[in-house]
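Q: Hi! First time asking for a complex rather than a single chain. Here are the components, and I think there are three in total. Is that enough to go on?
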Amino acid sequence: MTIEALKEKITALFPAVTFEEGGQWPTVLVEPTDWHRMAGILRQNDALYFDYLFCLTCIDWKTHLTMVYHLDSTKYRHNLVVKVNLLKMNPAVETVSDIWQTANFHEREVYEMFGVNFLHHPDLRLLILPDGWEGKHPLLKDFEDPINMIKL
Amino acid sequence: MVEEIASTADGNIILNLGPQHPATHGVLHLVITINGETIQKVEPHLGYIHRSIEKMCESLTYRQFIYVTSRMDYLSSHINNHACALCVEKGLQIEIPSRSQVIRVLMDELTRIASHELWWGAMAMDLGAFTPFFHAFREREAINDIMEETCGARLTMNYMVPGGVMQDIHPNFQRRVKEFITLFKSKVSEYNELVTGNIIFQNRMKGVGNLSAADAISFGCTGPTARGSGVSCDIRKLYPYEIYEKLDFEEILESDGDSFARYMVRVREMSQSISIIEQLIDNIPEGDFQAKTKAVLKLPKGEFYQRVETARGDFGVYIVSEGGTTPYRIKYRSPGFSNLSALDHMARGSKLGDLVAMMGTLDLVIPDIDR
Amino acid sequence: MWSFSKISKLIDSWLSVNFSSTWTMVIEMVIAGIAVITLFALLGLVLVLMERRVAAWIQIRLGPNRVGPGGMLQSLADTLKLLVKEGMTPDGADKFLFNLAPFIAMIVAMLLMAPIAFASNFQLWDLNIGVLYVTAISSLMVISILMAGWASNNKYSLMGAMRSGAQIVSYELSAGLSIMSIVVLSGSLNLNEIIQSQADGWWLFKGHIPVVIAFIIFIIAVTAETNRAPFDLAEAESELTAGFHTEYSGMKFALFFLAEYINVFIVCAIGATLFLGGWMPFHIGHWQAFNHVMDFIPSSIWFFGKTFFLIFLIMWFRWTFPRLRIDQLLDLEWKYLLPISMFNILLITLMAILGWHF
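A: Yes, that's all I need. Here is the structure of the assembled complex.
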């Protein structure tokens, strides 16, 4: 599927999404409440078939957080980037680990590093940070560590 | 006192495998629930070698941050550097000289062979055979020597820079690589005699650690792990970078999805890498080894993502730039992290000894997982 | 010509001239005890060095070559290191059993030394049920391992001990059956008589294919019984870190380590005695001249030569094969080795009755 056709298809399925321009892959911006339902369709729909979530991460824009999902289809080899903007205070979004199992670990990483709360995640615990880690989330921009040098 | 180790209520025992354990080849901590010898659940606890490389990179310039990435997957350090260099070049929109492209691919494939050699020995050691480790290191040493001559380092090379490679190849490079190819070819049959054809080895590997193609995709497995399940996922073929589309090589696929299939993929991949090196070693074009770049690199505002195929799978670099001299956010998508997440699914119901074999065939490099 | 039997006779006659018969007995026992302990120490040093040299040779490296001429004193230096190391006892361990286990391992290994004929007419105890004694005592080995595994209060140790228990008890059977085949052929349980029955050729060559099969099964079974790779599931370095002796350190660990090597020596000595004629030189039927030439080589050299050849074989296995899984290990015994050796012993009995062997 060409990028144009992909965009048309997605617009037809989800009229509410907006496209961002300029990236190497088509990028859509989704509301947090719509995301889980949309993810299910992206995975299931035969014409889209995004079965491979190859990257899941988060960006701290100081004013808000953005979840970034990079999707690939092993059948059609087309890619899609989905972005979900979250509030800085108490960020929360529905988990996609029931759709792509790889999201389980990636979401746990984002949970501890950015403090994003993934609703209905089966096992939302610290993964990389030590047990009993309290306080700030390391990858947020306002994280300060008085002991270890993190800035030059 | 002694009663304490007896059991949980349902007769299961909780066993800590790691963080210091001979089979984890690093500091991986698995909390296993076992019933007798049968595994009920595997729960990885990570972070023992977490250095927050992503955070560090946010305060390093585009020239500096590449050096840190050698320390992630230290067995594929060239390929990590390569991914970062490509990503920065994508942002800068510069073309690099064809000489440096060829050198980069040669280095990548040598690294892949070295990494698979180490994996081969370490995996045989997981199964209790110590000898292959030393035999694998004999050939790996030859590659390390070649690397040392050209890059000055044996493990964390930092050879690829935005715009090309750090310096030109050593005059001996071509001769020594050819010597290595002859050496390697004469030893492959030894590998198969010592390990692949061994009846104990085959019984240990066949039919254990099954991973179906659908699960491999769902868990985000890549590299030889997924190709052992028949999932075509070689980034070199699917999303070719550098000169890979001009090269003649085969994507190795096995369909069984068990430990032996993953083993065979890696062993056969070594020969493919040798064939790539053979195609290029006499055809290194003359010219510059580095494109002219500014002293201070500034990426335009935007997002850049580069996928490459490391020895372990799909390695991704995701740079978010705000237009400054340092990245605003960097995400490294490490193949080991996703491959590890499938371990619990694969290991349930198998024996403790098989878990070690499975970890061996996943080819886990812990600094790559923890970052 | 000096031989072990001459030396022992000399000592014996000198003692009986100078002391009463009771004191002679006591002094001889003390000498025998010292001799066994010295042999233990020597064997430990030699076998560890040999293992490392064989490993190095197979693994294309040099092995120990720094301490002493050609690394000869390496294992002595290691022993010294282990001696001065602290022998820790974990807090949660059952202290009595924990400390007892290595000694049991050692005692069992020492007891096994008794009926072995090291040279012609040189034996500690010419027992008329020697073979039975060896099989009976060697099964006690498992007790020390189970004790160590249980008392350590460590899950790895416990698993190693349980594996080892299942393994040793299983492989005892086919080891016993293959030993029994030689007993059937020679018609005696006395190790000395078994050796004498091989004066016209070793059983391995006299007994046709069934004895060769019994020999192969014997070697596999004793490798498993001594917990050596590819059957080292009780230790299983990559799975259970060190298995049943994970918690042991210092000299207590050294005793386990030593017991392992002594056991290897003993099972190889038994194998050499039963199948390769013990100290009996290489004889072919009634070729008197050839047999006579062979007799010039001292019997102790024949014995140690054969034993060390078998030890080398077992070391070769260790550095070549990967480890089996626990269920495969038990499968191999119960589904293959045991039925084969049962059928094999029938064949051998038939052979012995009809006198089909040479």
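A: The longest helix of chain B spans residues 98-126. Let me know if you'd like any chain examined more closely.
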